[in-house]
Design a protein that fits this description.
Blueprint lengths: L1 H16 L7 H15 L7 E2 H15 L6 E2 L1 H4 L4 H7 L7 E2 H15 L6 E2 L1 H8 L3
Antiparallel strand pairs: 1-4, 2-3
Helix pairs in contact: 1-2, 1-3, 3-6
This protein binds calcium ion (CA) (3 copies).
């Protein structure tokens, strides 16, 4: 269970940065579906802002191994160096929860193509360019 949460956090962070486009399309879709299911806590097939926030917090805490409420490049790993810059609002080289959440909410609104305040798996996959 814990592993799923970590995977979801990492996958959603990757999705948020667009790095997921580098992986094979089917792999990307499977990872996106797994992340979606992990984030959809009440299993209604929709992700709302509360579920997004909960998933983001869990993913953030899982990655923040030194617990300083900031994600440094060492915690994110070498492959994620380029992922930090676009999310790093104040340019201090690390990501605060606020920076990550702001980015996630922007992504959420962009992906919510019918603007009903929830995301379906179709909206997420379309947004990720999988379909
Ligand atoms: Ca839900
Ligand atoms: Ca940290
Ligand atoms: Ca929607």
């Amino acid at each position: 269970m814990k592993q799923t949460v970590i995977l979801a956090g990492l996958t959603l962070l990757l999705t948020a940065t667009g790095l997921s486009h580098a992986t094979a399309q089917s792999e990307n879709e499977l990872a996106t579906r797994a992340a979606f299911e992990a984030a959809d806590q009440n299993g209604d097939g929709l992700i709302d802002e509360a579920e997004l926030a909960h998933d983001t917090i869990e993913g953030f805490v899982a990655i923040d191994s030194d617990g300083n409420r900031s994600l440094e490049s060492g915690e994110l790993g070498a492959d994620f160096q380029d992922a930090i810059a676009p999310m790093d609002g104040d340019g201090n080289g690390s990501l605060s929860f606020e920076e990550v959440m702001k980015r996630k909410l922007n992504q959420f609104k962009q992906a919510d193509s019918n603007a009903d305040g929830t995301l379906t798996i179709e909206e997420v996959l379309t947004h990720d360019g999988v379909q």
